[in-house]
Amino acid sequence: MGYKISDVISYLEQIAPPSYQESYDNATLITGDRTAEVRGIVCSLDCIESTVEEAIELGANMIVAHHPIVFKGLKSLTGKNYVERTIIKAIKNDIAIYAIHTNLDHVPHGVNRRISDRLGLLDCKILQPKRQLLSKLVFYVPEPEKDKVLQAVYAAGAGKIGEYADCSFQVKGMGTFTPSAKANPTIGESGKAQEEQEIRVEVLVSNHVLPKVLQEMRAAHSYEEVAYYVQSLENENQEVGAGMIGMLAQEMEGEGFLDYLKAKMNLQVIKHTQVLSRKIKKVAVCGGAGIFLLGDAKRAGADVFVTADVKYHEFFDADGSLILCDIGHYESEIFTKELLWELLSQNFPNIALYLTKVVTNPTSYR
Ligand SMILES: [Zn+2]
């Protein structure tokens, strides 16, 4: 039996949870039937009319694109602009369009990791980690079944901190309860006050896996009513956020780095601020429009910040503390289609996968 569109979506959402996207974004299934069988997938940076035509010619019925073709609500669908024409063509031809956008920017093996890898950066870290993505789960469990419940919540994704798995804090104490006449207690009797040796367990949980963790905790726990609470945390999640920073294996002169950047990213041109006299070692990157990270790049001690869509006055903000490079939005993210292709091929070796050949860059140089 073949895979459904929903199987591909579930897999991609494990890699880049939709809750990691920015509020303005529209990373989701934009057209198509989740229950349809996948006949082939085209991986692309953008999805425009010519991308849909390419999918039709290839016999593929799904396009996985980084940029969503639809950002704002469409009030009519008549084909008066390229967005509407793309959507109409996709619907008429049963093509599913799935966008995986800022959620893929924000994961440690996403768009910015791809740029960092092309530049050979080592010791890569998220440049601006996100907050409010984590919760603390506290639950109480009789000692003999503690390990069983813990294994269940770990398997559902709880207890991960950076490179450490199975993280918990545990303390022994006394739980008390009186079951009502209608209760069906595992331990104790209705109407009788009960004391029980319990373990209080604390684990860290990413919010997007919290419903599953709670479900598995309840399933593994023998109590009719499990005592637990969830607290949302302000902590940064070091594994999720915008931009990336890493080190070159060997330091370079400023001019030499610009040549290197040009070669590694297949660039015709780099728009940059004054080349500094100091050596380049620490490099910050952000695919697409990343100027909002300039402060983070400076604070992190970057020698260069590579991004795109930088405006004239924003170049002044580099202010001699780093070399600010605008390499073009398309050029900075074009390798994302290969990332998508590789991610999909790892899990769906039997689905026909295509890298788009359509050049969607709306700008050119001469
Ligand atoms: Zn982009």
TrEMBL record:
InterPro entries linked to this entry: DUF34/NIF3, DUF34/NIF3_bac, DUF34/NIF3_sf, N-reg_PII/ATP_PRibTrfase_C
Residues that bind a divalent metal cation: H66, H67, D105, H329, E333
Molecular function in Gene Ontology: metal ion binding
Key words of the record: Metal-binding
One CC-aspect GO term: cytoplasm
One Pfam assignment: DUF34_NIF3
Signal peptide span: none
Oligomeric form and interacting partners: Homohexamer.
Similarity field: Belongs to the GTP cyclohydrolase I type 2/NIF3 family.
PANTHER family named among the record's database cross-references: GTP CYCLOHYDROLASE 1 TYPE 2 HOMOLOG, NGG1 INTERACTING FACTOR 3
Name of the protein in question: GTP cyclohydrolase 1 type 2 homolog
Taxonomic placement: Bacteria, Pseudomonadati, Bacteroidota, Cytophagia, Cytophagales
